[in-house]
């Protein structure tokens, strides 16, 4: 480690500013901007995801507009299973997909802009991941008036890092980025499979262009053979509780922060040894819906069994043939609007299944449901295979992460092929424009 130097964290930066939230509607002297929150970190590499847009004053948007290579540091909003201090790297590909708007980070976060003549943004991002995984960032996590906050000033002033020379930073980044690019490729395939499954649902059950629809008569807008039924007639809420002491330490646990926004794929979880109260049990292929602040539209289909927050509605079809149809019903805007209505009047917006199960739907006949479920099973099986491949890739990357960022695994004599995603970083004096 002779080429590694002790470096105060503050020396890495050329700029760092707090985030903004702005206004929900257009105001004089403002422009519509994309805002990235901590809850959006996992979706940054998914071009299909729509990020929140808010109206930001022009002079603030100009001053705080983000660019490729910036790192966002979450400074508030932690949970019992997830400390504050998480970070995300903004890549050029993100701005390529969102070039029409300036991009800022949200309140309760801040951006870090590095001196790229000395420091690789990817390497510093991976170093921050190491600090988070080893619990160092949690040292600066405090509970203040009910909200977890990250003491950024204290972290900046008291943190000294060991960092190698720039060529070695880039070699380490290239090794770890190879794993991340494979993971991202699988995520894109998962997103495509989800879109295909949902598009068939919409074509058959919303637009009513299902196989054989030409010969089926509509009666009051409902195809012949279909029934108008309540959601509760073919789906149930499962409220099987388990006490904290009865959970196995290595059992997978899903908090609300782990449930994605309208996605089949669950990619994050904690373990039961982190829980602090009684929870609910769910089975593989149960639908999980976050009842708190239902407008966030947190919905997923579990590909494993485990425990989840009691602020989750665990929904199970009464027969397997309803599964795909049920999932995309819960995905729908109609369902989320009803969930939002059911949560009004409560101190904390909380959806109510006893209200939701009364939703009336035009339910297809058994033969058509079976046909759709066959398609859905194929898509879901492929998604699960990709999710499990990503689990293996993530575990392999994380094993290398600590060894590489600590210098325990030397890279000096390795002949590294840099991935295409690092091209902009390897161009001397490159200054990628984030927003024109």
Name the descriptors.
single chain; 436 residues; alpha+beta; Adenine-n6-DNA-methyltransferase TaqI, Chain A, domain 2; five-stranded mixed sheet; four-stranded antiparallel sheet; 10 helices; 24 strands; globular; disordered C terminus
Outline the secondary-structure elements.
Elements: E1 4-8, E2 13-18, E3 30-36, E4 53-57, H1 58-64, E5 71-74, E6 87-89, H2 92-97, E7 103-105, E8 109-114, H3 121-133, E9 141-144, E10 147-150, H4 152-158, E11 160-164, H5 166-206, E12 218-219, E13 222-223, E14 227-230, E15 235-237, E16 241-242, E17 252-254, E18 270-271, E19 279-282, E20 287-290, E21 299-301, E22 306-308, E23 312-317, H6 323-331, H7 333-343, H8 353-356, E24 360-363, H9 366-405, H10 423-426
Parallel strand pairs: 3-7, 17-22
Antiparallel strand pairs: 1-11, 2-8, 3-4, 5-6, 5-8, 9-10, 12-13, 14-24, 15-23, 16-19, 17-18, 19-22, 20-21, 20-23
Helix pairs in contact: 3-5, 5-9
Mean pLDDT: 91
CATH class of the domain at 7-165 and 421-426: Alpha Beta
State the end-to-end distance: 42 Å
Q: How helix-rich are the residues, as a percent range?
A: 25-40%
Uncertain residue segments: 429-436
* CATH homologous group name of the domain at 7-165 and 421-426: DNA methylase specificity domains
Calculate Rg over CA atoms.
24 Å
Within the largest sheet, what's the order of strands?
16-19-22-17-18
Task: Quickly count the helices.
Answer: 10
| Percentage of β-strand residues | 15-25%
| Strand segment tally | 24
CATH topology of the domain at 7-165 and 421-426: Adenine-n6-DNA-methyltransferase TaqI, Chain A, domain 2
CATH architecture of the domain at 7-165 and 421-426: Alpha-Beta Complex
């Amino acid at each position: 480690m002779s080429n590694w130097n002790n470096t105060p964290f503050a020396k890495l930066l050329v700029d760092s500013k707090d985030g903004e939230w702005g206004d929900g509607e257009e105001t004089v002297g403002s422009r519509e901007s994309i805002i990235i929150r901590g809850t959006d970190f996992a979706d940054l590499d998914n071009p299909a995801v729509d990020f929140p847009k808010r109206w930001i004053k022009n002079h603030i948007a100009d001053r705080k507009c983000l660019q490729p290579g910036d790192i966002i540091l979450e400074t508030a909003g932690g949970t019992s299973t997830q400390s504050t201090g998480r970070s995300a790297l903004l890549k050029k590909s993100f701005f390529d997909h969102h070039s029409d708007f300036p991009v800022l980070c949200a309140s309760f976060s801040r951006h870090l802009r590095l001196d790229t003549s000395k420091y690789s943004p990817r390497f510093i991002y991976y170093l921050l991941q190491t600090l988070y995984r080893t619990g160092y960032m949690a040292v600066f996590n405090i509970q203040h008036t009910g909200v977890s906050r990250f003491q950024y000033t204290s972290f900046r002033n008291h943190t000294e890092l060991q960092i190698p020379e720039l060529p070695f930073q880039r070699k380490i980044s290239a090794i770890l980025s190879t794993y991340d690019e494979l993971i991202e490729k699988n995520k894109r395939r998962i997103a495509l499979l989800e879109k295909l499954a949902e598009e068939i649902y919409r074509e058959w059950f919303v637009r009513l262009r299902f196989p054989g629809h030409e010969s089926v008569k509509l009666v009051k807008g409902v195809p012949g053979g279909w029934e108008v039924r309540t959601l509760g007639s073919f789906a149930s809420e499962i409220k099987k509780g388990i006490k904290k002491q009865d959970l196995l330490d290595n059992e997978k646990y899903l908090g609300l922060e782990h449930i994605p926004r309208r996605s089949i794929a669950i990619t994050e979880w904690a373990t039961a040894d982190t829980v602090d109260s009684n929870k609910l049990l769910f089975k593989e292929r149960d639908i999980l819906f976050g009842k708190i602040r239902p407008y966030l539209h947190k919905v997923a289909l579990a590909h494993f069994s485990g425990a989840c927050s009691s602020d989750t509605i665990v929904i199970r079809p009464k027969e397997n043939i309803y599964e795909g149809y049920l999932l995309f019903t819960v995905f729908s805007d109609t369902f989320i609007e009803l969930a939002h209505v059911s949560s009004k009047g409560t101190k904390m917006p909380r959806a109510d299944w006893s209200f939701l199960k009364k939703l009336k739907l035009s339910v297809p006949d058994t033969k058509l449901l079976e046909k759709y479920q066959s398609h859905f099973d194929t898509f879901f099986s492929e998604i699960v295979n990709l999710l499990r491949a990503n689990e293996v890739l993530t575990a392999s990357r994380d094993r290398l992460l600590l060894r590489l960022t600590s210098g325990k695994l030397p890279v000096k004599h390795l002949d590294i092929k840099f991935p295409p995603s690092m091209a902009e970083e390897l161009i001397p004096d490159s200054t990628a424009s984030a927003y024109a």
